[in-house]
């Protein structure tokens, strides 16, 4: 089973995107492009959206 989770930028820009992760995995932290600051920044899992 997988979960759909919301990822939020740690740069404080309010940019979010959705990602999938396994149900038994730890919370996600990813480097992802933030178009407001125009560079890759750390995104952390904010909340679970739904099961897939």
Automatic annotation (TrEMBL):
Gene Ontology biological process terms, A to Z: translation
Organism: Heterocephalus glaber
Keyword Hydrolase appears in the UniProt entry: no
Subcellular location(s) of the protein: Mitochondrion
Keywords: Mitochondrion, Ribonucleoprotein, Ribosomal protein
Family: Belongs to the bacterial ribosomal protein bL33 family.
Gene3D superfamilies according to UniProt: Ribosomal protein L33
Principal cellular location given in the protein's record: mitochondrion
Gene Ontology molecular function, alphabetical: structural constituent of ribosome
Coiled coil: none
Keyword Membrane: no
InterPro entries with a match to the protein in the record: Mitoribosomal_protein_bL33, Ribosomal_bL33, Ribosomal_bL33_sf, Ribosomal_zn-bd
NCBIfam families: rpmG_bact
Protein name listed in UniProt: Large ribosomal subunit protein bL33m
Domain of life of the organism encoding this protein: Eukaryota
